[in-house]
Batch of 3 targets.
Target 1
Amino acid sequence: MPWQGNGWKPTSITRYIRSLRTSTGVAIVDTDCGEGFLKALSNPEGPHVLGCELVGSLLADWIGLPTLDVAIVDVSDDDEIPLATGGKAGIGPAFISRRVNGASWGGDIDSLRLVDISEDISRMILFDTWVRNCDRYRPEPRRRNLDNVFYVRHYETDRSQVVLTAIDHTHAFTCGRELSRRIAHIDAVQDELTYGEFPEFTELRNLAVEAAVRQRLHEMDIAEAQRFVGMVPATWVEDVEVKAAWASFIAGRAGFLARPAATADGRNH
């Protein structure tokens, strides 16, 4: 079954295209369902970031935030996929996201006003805050990564639509560090920082959408969180206690942010 119910589920890699010099050693490959960006077990940041990427992408989809189509595809003995960071793609399950036509946001507010994306901006801020994603925008210590705000153009019959899309969730939950049982510590669950809010986003926030997202977060219980974490292959995250703590964080932080905005992030929205 396709991860996001969108019909995209590659089952095999058919061709290596090229490698990118990124922190996770991304390789562009072709599959039986089209081209994608592959992140393999042997990536320089380790297997845990693959789990963060998968769960982050699925949670974004769960709250209605546009993200790339994703899947898990096996790298076999026959696949010769060199990585720009050195070595080859490790044999076993790899994370893959569908290759699409698009461009990174340049950081200007004018381009944000060109399309009706206030709903996506609001969802992105709450999503990044929920999963503590430090690799888009973090206020302190400050980090600003425009590459992870991506415009995707969708074509429908005689018109096209530009969609603001959240990409790359490898640094969600732990900011790139290895997952551990400490993820469920109260300091993480009740972190009051607002993530993902570029200064250019502030005036475009949609309070009605944010209220709807908070209501959606009310529905994230421990069973649902365990379902998402349970999709992560054991070769990526083996420790069952770590997975249990991860699910506890996801559900607990959802409950924390589902409260009225003034108590969840210290401001009246």
Target 2
Amino acid sequence: MIKLGVNIDHVATLRQARYPTGLGPSPLAPAEPDLLAAARLCEKAGAHGITVHLREDRRHIQDRDVFLLRKKIKTRLNLEMAATPGILRVALRVRPDSVCLVPEKRREVTTEGGLDVLADSRNLGRVIPQLQKAGIRVSLFIDVAPAQIVRAADLGANMVELHTGAFANAPTLKKRAGEVARLRYAAGLAQAAGLIVNAGHGINYENVGALLSIPRLHEFNIGHSIICRAVAVGLETAVREMLRLMNPSRG
């Protein structure tokens, strides 16, 4: 069974649009929507974990959100983060179940590509052991490139998350099939290197089925599509629908 980590960043995006501090004007008028309530609905629907990205500019998720989720949710907390000193200090205090190290640019709308593990090996070689020493499993968000996968294994990462952006943005079914083949090869290479393989970016209700032919994928991390679907059908239903598509043999 492929597991589902639901990224709830955009619940916080909606909250920040009205409440830039992340807090409501008074105890009688709390900030909405409630991030913890959203996480609990995802859990109730069967999500296997909650993912949040604590960005350096704090555009959506705030530090207190991460601490609250760590304390209150029942499933796994996965923290997406840049490998920078300030965010590392927060992660070591929070101690999420896992961390996914991602590249980060201030002007990007969302994460645009994978880490350059080769170029950033020195920094990653310092950050990964610190997180693991604190009991945190480490994943690296990488593009579908054999050299990146091999280096991720050399650095001692526990997992990789394959960037599925090229797959999600493919303009034709033929090109999509080509991207699935590339992902399948990359996943096999990573698994042979002893890495757990996750996938994420741009996965939605229409295209998720095309990824199910890739053997032994461990988890999909999906956010934007689920939150968009939730506007129409509610968050709990949106999560259940995605789980059914991801694991059709389980009904």
Target 3
Amino acid sequence: MDFGVKDKVAVVTGASEGLGKAIALVLGQEGARVAITARRSEQLDSAASEIRDQTGADVLAVTGDMSAKANVETFIGAVVDKWDTVHVLVNNVGRAMRGKFADLSQDEWRNALDANLFSAIYCTELALPLMRR
């Protein structure tokens, strides 16, 4: 396959396992430079090593919770410091809520919205100007 990402900078959030890691792996196989992030550093470092080993891609791994805008700024800043741009953004952060609707607190709802919605807003807000140029 040719996704047209050879030598492009691809950013994938929630990339320490599952779908995010699989997407980052395919982007690496397609020749992209891959920046990944997730909250758990051990899993993220393992994913970065796996992507490098299987694809030979240049991989940047930055641990952080993308539901906090300051962490998104740190992550995208590290990408810009290393590669000066972003070409591809995959907003893959997701946090499931467990429990019955009536049992969930407003804080649990806020945490879910911060992770599932605002992480994508923050990442897009910072990456879009880079992607446009």
